[in-house]
Design a protein that fits this description.
By secondary structure, the chain is an alpha/beta fold. It has 3 domains: about 90 residues, Orthogonal Bundle (Arc Repressor Mutant, subunit A), CATH 1.10.10.10; about 100 residues, 3-Layer(aba) Sandwich (D-Maltodextrin-Binding Protein, domain 2); about 100 residues, D-Maltodextrin-Binding Protein, domain 2 (3-Layer(aba) Sandwich), CATH 3.40.190.10. The strands form 4 sheets. A 5-stranded mixed β-sheet has the order 4-3-5-12-6. The chain has a 3-stranded antiparallel β-sheet with strand order 10-7-11. A two-stranded antiparallel sheet has the order 1-2. A hairpin with a 2-residue loop joins strand 1 and strand 2. Helix 1 packs across helix 2 and helix 1 packs across helix 4.
Length: about 300
């Protein structure tokens, strides 16, 4: 097969890999930005030029043949090399400028990061921020993002960064429902019979979610959602009591802590990037800026205040 490979352009490798990843033509066409008929026609031309079938067509989708697996493996190697070269070239920039892709989650963005990003932009107007909201870890090695701002106790070993603080969690209720100051010290057992709000089962990686699942009867968990952003609104609306990051709950006068922060629920807040990008001017500028600004809010994030 070595000789026919000379007839393949990089776009052909990309097309074959896209079909393999999507296991079909429509999704592959959407991925590479062409129409379905173009993908179908080009795949036929490639297979004819090579003299081999690259895919077996099944009812469940397109499956690679051994020849197709060889081409996809080659495409992945080339893609990795291109990505590595791009990272290194980007890392040679001197002035902070250009686009910087940052990934974080919605609660950190809304309750902490947006004003910091505004101040960063005022200081570095040539840097354009592309913020990607997701609770999933993007692949910084593939430059799905340049900087990740994550609450995690286990940052990926392939990344480098800084631990900023611990995000404390505590139990909150609507202040009008709890007019008397709480004297509890992390014990919520007397409140288990009340209505509760909680993150859903899909977010059971949060220790607070597992606590509620283990201690509160299912019929008392009256409201679930899949984003931390909506928890405070639900508690403030009087739907039920629930756990919140302290930097969210303590910022709302309509909420009151019902117990001291539970140390078991805390998560570390990290600024992360790929090793090849840590000396990049705009990456370094953002990480240095955020580290300094977020340090000013460290006690607040760690819940270091007395119960009301």
């Amino acid at each position: 097969m070595a000789e026919p490979f000379k007839n393949l352009a990089w776009d052909d490798f990309r097309l074959i890999k896209a079909i393999a990843d999507a296991r079909g033509l429509p999704a592959a066409a959407a991925e590479i930005g062409v129409n379905h008929s173009t993908v179908f026609r080009r795949l036929g031309q490639i297979e004819e030029a090579l003299g081999v079938k690259l895919f077996e067509r099944h009812r469940t989708g397109y499956a690679l043949t051994p020849a197709g697996e060889e081409i996809v493996a080659a495409a992945e190697r080339v893609d990795e090399e291109i990505t590595a070269v791009t990272r290194k070239l980007v890392g040679r920039e001197v002035e902070p400028s250009g686009e910087l892709r940052v990934t974080t989650n919605d609660s950190l963005l809304v309750h902490l990061l947006t004003p910091l990003f505004a101040r960063f932009r005022a200081r570095h107007p040539k840097v354009r921020l592309d913020v990607v909201l997701t609770n999933q870890a993007l692949n910084l090695s593939k430059r799905d993002a340049d900087v990740a701002i994550r609450a995690t106790d286990k940052p990926p070993e392939t990344l480098v960064g800084r631990r900023i603080a611990q995000i404390a969690w505590a139990l909150y209720g609507r202040a009008s429902d709890f007019p008397e100051p709480s004297d509890q010290d992390g014990d919520a057992s007397s409140l288990f019979a009340r209505p509760w709000v909680s993150l859903g089962d899909s977010m059971a990686a949060f220790k607070a979610v597992r606590f509620v699942q283990a201690h509160v009867a299912p019929e008392n968990i009256v409201y679930k959602l899949n984003t931390v952003l909506g928890l405070a609104e639900a508690i403030e609306a009087g739907i039920g009591i629930g756990h919140l990051p302290c930097f969210i709950g303590d910022a709302r006068p309509a909420l009151v802590r019902l117990a001291q922060p539970n140390a078991d629920f805390a998560a570390e807040l990290w600024l992360l990037t790929h090793p090849d990008l840590r000396h990049n001017a705009r990456v370094r500028a953002l990480m240095d800026f955020l580290a300094g600004e977020m340090a000013k809010h460290r006690r607040f994030m760690e819940g270091l205040r007395e119960l009301a």
